[in-house]
Specification:
The chain is an alpha/beta fold. It has 11 helices and 23 strands. It has 3 domains: 72 residues, Glutaredoxin, CATH 3.40.30; 179 residues, FAD/NAD(P)-binding domain (3-Layer(bba) Sandwich), CATH 3.50.50.60; 116 residues, FAD/NAD(P)-binding domain (3-Layer(bba) Sandwich). Bound molecules: flavin-adenine dinucleotide.
């Protein structure tokens, strides 16, 4: 029994050999080759099998295929069969499925349509990702510099623009992605879809604060992220944990309603953009760098936060009513089927334009090891990814079937 799934016995010269190789290569299928021209034993084996010197002869999934057409070959590998069964169920094969419709995914949908590709965008929530809860976005070029623009408005415009150029956007959680030859099968709660390529733009998760008391007061005084609701914090004493942009955004917003806001930064200096830190301080936010939060305490309600400040050996207590944890992004667990994509500290590592080692699988935005996680950089990453992808698809056409 041959060990490899596909073995090609060939004389290395006939036109049929070339066509068979083209078909396998276009499907990204690998094979073992045995030469009937240079190996007498292989030659004898093929003659015995076929009763003549046929070339090529392929062994595919327990079947022998003497000089198959490209169509027969694809059928035997399973690719052709899958496409037919997909079409018979009335499913469209998209050029690209974009998974995740935050700003990176929406930019990718728009960019792919500009390249003339058919695009399906899927998100488990409404389009917008981390933009949705932002009360005022002020770092996107041309947006929010003179008045506060809610992230939800920008998200709605991005989605509208992607739809306007012809992208199909649907709500559905993607549960797995399987690569089958040149095609990818995307399994989601909205249905199963075929695509020639997939762009992953699933974003990042919130970094957790693992200290005594957090679980007890979660959503009862302690919240994650800047999803801040003014009413809850009006006239309250609030602590924000984190030193990056997200923490400063939360603090600036809270300073409009809260009695006072203290930001405890884990690093020796805030890592947020200097202008944001300046604005926070200008809004009477107290910023304490170099802190380690030890515990939060209270009977029925949150009462006290204990922390250690660099250079001060004693633990300090901060009376408070509410706390927002905004420690920045953390990597998500990859969608099943993508575990083998190379990672860098849990984020997808990639080549230029989001290209990965799997043909036709690209990554964009916060889920990648991108340098800066801002609206401007993730939109750029989504649209560059789209451009590289349509160039890749143009250079990897599906094989023409021999009839
Ligand atoms: C509090 C805060 C404030 C910020 N403020 C600013 C600012 O003022 N200016 C600025 O430039 N940037 C800001 N940013 C950063 C910016 O919002 C992010 O960098 C950006 O949203 C990342 O975009 P993304 O598309 O990569 O991921 P996300 O926005 O995280 O979108 C990912 C999407 O993928 C979807 N998804 C994930 N898994 C699946 C799945 N299995 N199936 C289907 N869908 C899935 C999610 O539902 C989500 O909609 C801020 C971020 C935060 C958190």
């Amino acid at each position: 029994m041959p060990a490899a799934k596909i073995i090609m016995f060939s004389d290395g010269v006939s036109e049929s050999n070339r066509l068979a190789k083209d078909a396998l290569e276009a499907q990204h299928l690998s094979w073992d080759e045995r030469s009937t021209a240079t190996d007498a034993e292989t030659n004898a084996f093929v003659r015995k099998l076929c009763g003549a010197a046929v070339s090529p002869v392929l062994y595919v999934k327990d079947q022998w295929l003497p000089d198959p057409t490209q169509e027969e070959l694809l059928e035997a590998t399973g690719v052709r069969f899958d496409i037919e069964s997909c079409e018979s169920r009335g499913q469209t094969i998209f050029d690209v499925v974009v998974v995740g419709l935050g700003p990176a995914g929406l930019a990718a949908c728009h960019g792919c349509r500009l390249g003339g590709l058919s695009v399906l965008g899927l998100d488990e929530n409404e389009p917008g990702g981390h933009l949705l809860p932002l009360t005022d976005v002020d770092e996107y070029l041309g947006v929010g510099f003179d008045e506060a623009v809610p992230g939800a408005d920008i998200a709605a415009n991005f989605a509208e623009h992607a739809r306007h150029v012809g992208a199909t956007l649907m709500q559905g959680k993607v549960n797995s992605i399987r690569i089958q030859g040149a095609f990818k099968r995307v399994h989601s709660t909205a249905g199963n879809f075929w695509a020639r390529a997939v762009i992953i733009a699933t974003g990042a998760a919130q970094r957790e604060l693992k200290i005594e008391g957090v679980e007890k007061f979660l959503n009862r005084g302690i919240r994650y992220g800047a999803q801040v609701d003014a009413q809850i914090y009006t006239d309250r004493r609030v602590a924000v944990i984190g030193g990056g942009d997200e923490a400063m955004h939360a603090a600036i917003f809270l300073s409009r309603f809260a009695k006072f806001v203290t930001v405890l930064c884990p690093d020796d200096e805030p890592t947020a953009e200097p202008l944001l830190v300046e604005r926070a301080i200008g809004n009477r936010v107290r910023v304490i760098p170099g802190t380690r939060v030890a515990a939060v305490k209270g009977d029925d309600a949150l009462d006290y936060l204990f922390f250690v400040e660099k250079g001060i050996p004693e633990e300090q207590g901060l009376p408070l009513d509410a706390m927002v944890v905004a420690l920045g992004p953390a990597p998500k667990t990859p969608i099943p089927g993508l575990e083998r994509l190379p990672q860098d500290e849990g984020y997808f590592a990639h080549g230029e334009g989001g290209k990965t080692m799997f043909g036709g699988i690209y990554v964009a935005g916060d889920c990648t090891n991108i340098d800066t996680r801002t609206l401007m950089s993730v939109v750029a990453s989504g649209s560059l990814c789209a451009k590289r992808l349509w160039q890749w698809l143009a250079s990897h056409p599906l094989p023409k079937l021999k009839v």
